[in-house]
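Q: Please design a sequence for this.
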């Protein structure tokens, strides 16, 4: 059965000999009975001199001279002395909570377990007040016991890492989504149908989006409003390109670097009005980027008249992608989404299918594409409307893997794939997005350092394997010389993204390779597994529609 504890004698507060023995006898009888034994023993008797109750002597030796009292310690952890508490009372810190803060009595990790009864009694004595009138301080854990569950319970099971879900999450769950974690979100990796494997579903989603129309739940993108008369000036300082020259109603791709010049986030910036911008960030970057903007505003550029607000979860965002995307939006009705009214990299506000909407004409796939932001509460309604309106055009949802393959076909980079905290925009052929006219931006000075300007830095290239059906493993190293039977060899870079491209019918990869631009046409060795080598030719990283004609129709 359950265990039990019986205290006896002075341990249970009975201090005189006769009473202590009697208490101990009764405790023994109880213990015997609880364990199923029958005992018939008389209680031992004892005689003792009569004792008066304990005297409340709170500092020893009693009546000591001031010199001795000065070093009588109360709180051994915080070195609080009797004299400190008396001084607190003398200085007017008569409230018990004030004394605590004046002396740090009971503030240590024991929360007063060792000292507070004595300390409060000394205070009462100094104030010539009864102890109950002085009161007690707040005892926090571990003085007031807490369960391990209270400390660790929130980090168990599904609570270990709370999952963020988009307004369309429920629909995806009910329609066979194969999930993957993306930062704190869960996102559909693909939507297998019937007896499809996940890989077959990805292939179908890519081909359908490239030839008909695909729908992507892009609600996880960070959306940060930057507003105020100095918003343009501020964004010029945090992005590598000039944002203040952006016209109202237009979009611009932007890069953010840290103080060391290294790329850490990217996204499309939209100028909503003369004094407000909406900055899109990566799915995993919204909170980090918002904190970054606030840190600079609060500690460095506090004189700029700018406010920021993280609106990520206030909007659902649906990407309508593919050659028939415009037809789907025209079926929804309510906005002019023609090429003339809404050209590439423009934005318009209005309503689609009766839902208030912002339409951004931006493309991460290289296809004709619109990203539509609607109020989060109406996100699912809008998604359903898109599916219904797109049925005649063959609209199908697609997941994150199709998104990744299509962006790689276009040579678009992903933060966290092509970047690792040591990569600058120039390494990724994004020098065009780094202003040479601006006097300053975060990372500008760092990018002029010798190590970041040397010509043999690893830069972004594309790779085509000799066997077009063979896919390079992510992270595979390129070596300087063909792999010999023995002896070390120098690595000159690594694969950052690698996929089989259903659009092109062969594998594609992107890699960071030493002096990459000068190696076009070279064939490199990538040792993989036990003695295996995959050979691949260095090519331009844009594998599809270099001119951009598909997205600008």
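A: Design:
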């Amino acid at each position: 059965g359950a265990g039990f504890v019986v205290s006896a004698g002075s341990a249970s507060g009975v201090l005189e000999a006769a009473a202590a023995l009697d208490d101990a006898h009764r405790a023994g009888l109880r213990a015997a009975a609880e364990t199923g034994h029958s005992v018939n023993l008389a209680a031992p008797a004892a005689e003792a001199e009569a004792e008066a109750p304990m005297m409340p002597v709170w500092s020893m030796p009693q009546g000591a001279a001031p010199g001795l009292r000065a070093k009588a310690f109360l709180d051994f952890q915080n070195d609080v002395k009797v004299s400190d508490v008396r001084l607190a009372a003398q200085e007017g810190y008569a409230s018990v909570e004030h004394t605590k803060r004046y002396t740090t009595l009971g503030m240590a990790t024991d929360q007063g377990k060792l000292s507070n009864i004595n300390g409060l009694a000394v205070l009462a004595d100094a104030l010539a007040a009864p102890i109950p009138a002085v009161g007690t301080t707040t005892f926090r854990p571990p003085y007031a016991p807490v369960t391990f569950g209270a400390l660790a319970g929130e980090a168990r099971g599904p609570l270990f890492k709370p999952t963020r879900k988009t307004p369309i999450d429920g629909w995806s769950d009910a329609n066979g989504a194969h999930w993957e974690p993306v930062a704190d979100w869960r996102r559909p990796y693909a939507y297998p149908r019937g007896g499809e494997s996940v890989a077959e579903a990805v292939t179908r989603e890519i081909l359908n989006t490239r030839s008909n129309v695909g729908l992507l739940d892009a609600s996880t993108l960070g959306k940060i409003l930057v507003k105020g008369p100095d918003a343009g000036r501020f964004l010029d300082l945090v992005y590598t390109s000039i944002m203040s020259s952006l016209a109202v109603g237009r979009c611009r791709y932007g890069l953010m670097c840290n103080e060391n010049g290294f790329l850490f986030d990217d996204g499309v910036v939209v100028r909503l009005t003369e004094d407000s911008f909406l900055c899109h960030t990566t799915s995993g970057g919204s909170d980090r980027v918002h904190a970054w903007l606030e840190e600079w505003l609060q500690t460095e550029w506090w004189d700029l008249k700018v406010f920021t607000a993280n609106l990520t979860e206030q909007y659902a965002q649906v990407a309508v992608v593919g050659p028939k995307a415009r037809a789907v939006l025209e079926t929804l009705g309510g906005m002019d989404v023609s090429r003339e009214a809404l050209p590439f990299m423009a934005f318009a506000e209005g309503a689609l299918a009766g839902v208030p909407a912002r339409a951004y004409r931006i493309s991460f796939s290289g296809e004709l594409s619109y990203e539509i932001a609607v109020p989060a509460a109406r996100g699912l309604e809008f998604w359903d409307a898109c599916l219904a309106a797109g049925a005649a055009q063959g609209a199908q949802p697609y997941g994150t893997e199709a998104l990744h393959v299509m962006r790689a076909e276009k040579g678009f980079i992903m933060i966290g794939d092509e970047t690792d905290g040591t990569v600058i925009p120039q390494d990724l052929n994004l020098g065009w997005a780094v202003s040479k006219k601006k006097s300053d931006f975060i990372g500008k000075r760092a990018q002029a350092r010798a190590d970041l300007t040397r010509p043999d830095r690893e830069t972004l290239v594309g790779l085509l394997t000799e066997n077009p059906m063979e896919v390079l493993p992510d992270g595979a190293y390129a070596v300087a010389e063909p792999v010999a039977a023995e002896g070390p060899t120098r690595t000159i870079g690594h694969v950052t993204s690698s996929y089989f491209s259903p659009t092109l019918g062969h594998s594609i990869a992107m890699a960071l390779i030493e002096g990459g631009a000068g190696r076009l046409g070279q064939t490199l060795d990538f040792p993989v597994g036990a003695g295996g080598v995959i050979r691949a030719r260095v090519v331009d990283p844009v594998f599809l529609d270099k001119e951009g004609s598909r997205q600008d129709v």
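Q: Thanks. Anything notable?
A: The two ends are 79 Å apart (CA to CA). The domain at 222-313 is CATH 3.30.70.1400 (Alpha-Beta Plaits).
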